[in-house]
Fold this protein.
Amino acid sequence: ETGVTQTPRHLVMGMTNKKSLKCEQHLGHNAMYWYKQSAKKPLELMFVYSLEERVENNSVPSRFSPECPNSSHLFLHLHTLQPEDSALYLCASSPGTTNTGELFFGEGSRLTVL
Amino acid sequence: AQSVTQLGSHVSVSEGALVLLRCNYSSSVPPYLFWYVQYPNQGLQLLLKYTSAATLVKGINGFEAEFKKSETSFHLTKPSAHMSDAAEYFCAVSQTTSGTYKYIFGTGTRLKVLA
């Protein structure tokens, strides 16, 4: 299995829908991240979890709700999104948030909000 | 606060020519620096990283980067471009805040390789 797996790869939703993005890592890492990648913008860090505890919430609107039930799984629950939320959402993991190990990324979930 | 600047959002080179992608950082402490590559419809993949060991870092696919503290630069090079190198490249720096490392990414440079 690949190191970090994201599902679904593509998602189209209306502004009133509720959907979730899923991320699973098979690397035994302790930290997991959500990033947003929009065209012509730097990667935006959204959330960081270390050992299932949220350690970073980068001023993300409440319509994005993360969940980390264990160190291998990370979810991003989506509710009443706006068209400007359309982007590629990348999940990543690292050995921990207190070392300089690199991030391992999934292939991303391409979200389109109509 | 640390930051990363990538000069040139688009770079075109001929196949077989030298690839040079520029990255400058700002940091008040010795940084940890990374280069990632992103192919279409994929996530980011680590090319190489600098963690205060050798200043010349060799990575995958023939890429290397040199850490120059005096210039606050970490430019990525490859002697001879291949068509398969066409992708987007991101420079990143990690910083610690209260013991937690965060990764700051540049805006990316899209490399085009001409036949």
